[in-house]
Structures are given as C-alpha cells and as structure tokens.
Amino acid sequence: MLFLLVGILAQAVDGALGMAYGVISSSVLLALGVPPATASASVHAAEVFTTAASATSHVAHKNIDWRLFLPLMIAGVIGGILGAYVLAGVDGDMIKPFVVLYLALIGIWILWRAGHDVKPRRLPRWVTAPFGLVGGFLDAIGGGGWGPTVTSSMIGSGQEPRKAIGTVNTAEFFLTVAVSATFVWALVTGHWEEAGALENHAYAVGGLVAGGLIAAPFAGLIVKKVPRKVLSYAVGLLLIGLAIFQGVNLFLK
Questions:
Q1: How far apart are CA 63 and CA 161, in angstroms?
Q2: Residue 129's pLDDT is what?
Q3: Confidence (pTM)
Q4: Spatial distance between the Cα atoms of 236 and 63, rounded to a whole number of angstroms
C-alpha cells in the first residue's frame, strides 16, 4: 500500500508537471534501503507502464508538439542507453551538484518568465536533441532525471508549458523501455554485477506500477486545462524545490 500511494503521488505530479516521478519514487526506495542501482532499475521498470498510460493521455488531449518529438525521443534513447550501460562505473553524486545548480537557476528563470508574462516561442527542431541526450543520460545514472532536465530546459527556452510537458512525457515512454532493456541486458551478460536481487523488490515495482496507472490517465487532462502561467509557476517552484531537496541530501552525506 505504501508503494501504491507513492506511485499515485509521484505520477500525479509527473503527469501534470512533466517531472519528479523518478525523484519521488527513487527517494522512497533508497530510504527503505534498496541499493541505488536496484532502485534505478525498479523505477524504470515501473515507468514502462506508467509512462505508457501518461503518454496515451497526452496524445488523446493533443498536448504533443510532434515536430519536436522525434529528435527528442531518439536522442533521449541514445543518452539513456549510454547512461544505463555505464551506471555501475559512474558516480552520480559527482554530477549532482552541477545538476542541482542547473535546476535551481532554470527554476528561477522560468518563474521570472512567468512573472513577466513572456510569451512562448517556436523552438527550432534541432534544439531538443541535446536536451534529450543529456536528459536521457542523467536519468539512467540518477544524476538528475529526464523530466527535471528536459522539461525545464524546453520551458526555459520558450516552449509552451503544455506542449513541453506532453512531448517530454510521451518521449519518456521510449526512453524507459530502452533503459529497462539495457538494464536487463547488462544484468544477463554480467556487466552489471552490483545490481543485487531485483526480484526481491518486485512488490515495490508492483506498487509503483499500480499507483502510477491510477493517476496517469488524468495527466493529459490536467495539463490541457491548467492555464499556461499557472503551469509555468508550478514547474518553476517544483524545480527549485527539487534542487533544495537534492542539495540537502548531498550536504547530509
């Protein structure tokens, strides 16, 4: 029931604001003593199902900029596979201070844009590829996460919040499938020797999946109905909150 509630909360926030499912879910798993690599794999396994439901909702409510979707998805998959493959050899804590600073600055920038009512602009198609590459890599190694880095970067660059959230959430489905498949391949081939017994945490994955599937169908509707300025303020405040949360965790280690 605990993981079910975590899944509902995490997916409700992620579906509406395009970020934080991984951060919330991973934090709870780590707090309960699940090894970092296993926590990452558990969350990505759950996200295969929750992102599929969320993506379907965003497609149904026409929250996607298809012009930006393909380069974002392809680059995200490449970055995610690279990140998943080298997970055991990369210390995410070395990267996190830079990610925390980035999230805080982008959050402040988005709040400034919302406060000055800066209108969205049409982003060039190529700009989503580097966002996707970096976001996918950080998502897999646990350095920042797909949503916080990519959604924030797109909104900060001027993309309409509704389209940014819908596009990033939909691309995330393909990223999670690729990352989960890479985790399985690395485990089977012996590359990922420190994974631990993932099957011991099947109940956690099941709870996250069930909770996420309850909340995910409402994602597209929420994003469609909430005004642009309100979404911008919510995203900016959430980014600053995530930066503070991750910064405190780093300080306490």
A1: 10
A2: 94
A3: 0.83
A4: 19
Return the number of other C-beta atoms located less than 10 Å from residue 121's C-beta. 10
**Distant-in-sequence, close-in-space partners of 178: CB < 8 Å, separation ≥ 6:** 77, 80, 81, 84
Alpha helix locations (H) across the chain?
Answer: 2-17, 21-31, 36-60, 66-85, 92-115, 128-141, 146, 152-156, 161-189, 202-215, 219-225, 228-252
Question: Tokens 């509630």 correspond to what residue?
Answer: 5
Whole-angstrom distance, CA of residue 203 vs CA of residue 3: 8
Give the 3-state secondary structure of 34-80: CCHHHHHHHHHHHHHHHHHHHHHHHHHCCCCCHHHHHHHHHHHHHHH
In this predicted model, what pLDDT tens digit does every residue of 61-77 receive, in sequence order?
Answer: 999 999 999 999 999 99
The residue whose two tokens read 């190529």 is 126
Phi first, then psi, for residue 47 (nearest 5°) are -65, -25
Tens-digit pLDDT profile for residues 179-228: 778 777 766 676 555 555 556 667 777 888 899 899 988 888 889 898 98
Burial of 116 (0-12, 13-18, 19+ CB in 10 A): exposed
| CB-based contact 179:79 (threshold 8 Å) | no
Is residue 252 exposed (0-12), middle (13-18) or buried (19+ Cβ within 10 Å)? exposed
Contact between 200 and 34 under an 8 Å Cβ cutoff? The reply is no
Q: What pLDDT digit, counting tens, does each position of 7-49 carry?
A: 888 888 888 888 888 778 877 777 777 777 677 777 777 888 8
